[in-house]
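Allow me, if you will, to draw on your knowledge of protein folds for a short while. I have a record of one protein: its chain in single-letter code and its fold written as discrete structure tokens. Kindly check, if you would, that the fold set down in the tokens agrees with what the sequence suggests. Thank you for your consideration; the sequence and its tokens are set out here:
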Amino acid sequence: MNPVPDIFRILPEVILTVTGVAVMLIDASLPPDWARRPLGWVAALGTTLALWASLWQLSLPVGTGFYSTIETSPFTVFFHVLICGIVLVALLLSLDTLPEDSHHQGEFYALIVFGAVGMCLLTGAVELLLVFIALEISSISTYILAGYRKDTPRGPEAAIKYFLLGSFATGFLLYGIALAFGATGTTQIYEIARLAPTAENHGLVLAALALMLVGILFKVSAAPFHVWTPDVYEGSPSPVVALMSTAPKAAAFALLLRVLYEMFPSLHATWTPLLWVVAVLSMTVGNLAALRQENVKRMMAYSSIAHAGYLLAAFAGFGSSGIAAASFYTAAYAAMNVGIFAVITVASGYDEKRPLVNDFRGLIYRSPLLGSLLIFFLVSLVGIPFTGGFFGKFYSFTAAVGGGAIWLALIGLLNSGLAAAYYLRLALAAAQHQTAKEAKDAGPTPQVGIAVGAALLLAVAATLILGIVPGEVLRAAEAGAHVLEAPPVQTTVLVGPVLSPPAP
């Protein structure tokens, strides 16, 4: 059998990189007074090609390339498709919501695409130095995008807070990588998994796990590493929040799955109770704080913290059941969350002059489409049947029960009921009639353009498919889970049979 060219292992990343460079070169070549909106369509086209390339990688044999630093498998394809889909929706959303005269619009589209390069690399990296580089590529792009509205006081504040705290968390991750190298003499994930159980200094291995967990849990905004989330969500443009609340988290959860189930499976008894505690803290802190919010974006920020807790509950599951449940929940949350931020973006406008819950009062009468979709996505976030949110929570809590964490599943169910209070508060506001004064202050009826309509259609379709016929996506998640349980044999790095359980 002919070996697979290494370039095929990173084909989606190559396409995204070429797209980002092309957008920047075209932007620099256009006269200053020309519109930059077509550059968004170029970025969307490149992202669509990258999504197709990700699906094409399913035809490749499972394996690694570039000296065993990057892997192609059903697991990586699952998250590549998810990330490219989110980026495509974020680009479509930006096309109709960014003002024509907004500054550096071409760079905005290029940064989104370059951020996607880092996220895709992060999901496929099996070498910790590449993990660090990919994380930085993704993070730097989102740091800049968070401060895109630099003419508002909250924009630079969001970017600075995100940058400072994000850099601090990345330092923890890097220290963890250094300690893993000190304990095993390698930064290759499969080799660390083989050598960690017999490492002379077991304390270094535990410290490496702890520090890496801090860095990754910050990226997914899990408590107690969540303090940056509300301010950054509030200060960033809504299309950017739609992206950063889903795609970087999907990549970070993919990394978390790989680190725990593939690199440190021997420490399962150590990291499971830690994540148990983090899951409970995230669910409870996120929901209790969200109950007190009047600003919609801050409410959704705390909601994302709670959903990180629901997803982490799946990590209590054994083997492939926990991996598949976490992967499926990541996809379900991404679909409904990017959808609701698309509605918030159109309803509030780019300047977000009316960001409070009461400002959404009567939305279903001013714009029946947006009001109905807002209620639909809120219902999905609650976890009502026939939506992606229902099956996401169902699989996550089922995995927790299967792993013996019955109390964790019960706490998750109670928190889901608690979350319904603030989700339904926003839904009821959208369904209520406005007073004459409120109708006058509401301004013109929000308009849904072609690009935004396509973005909303993709989000609705994904949420319904995951809620009505989730079987295909769940099978894809399970296929990826089996790869993490039985990683491919390396061609350039010798991997012993320690990763597989000994024969009885």
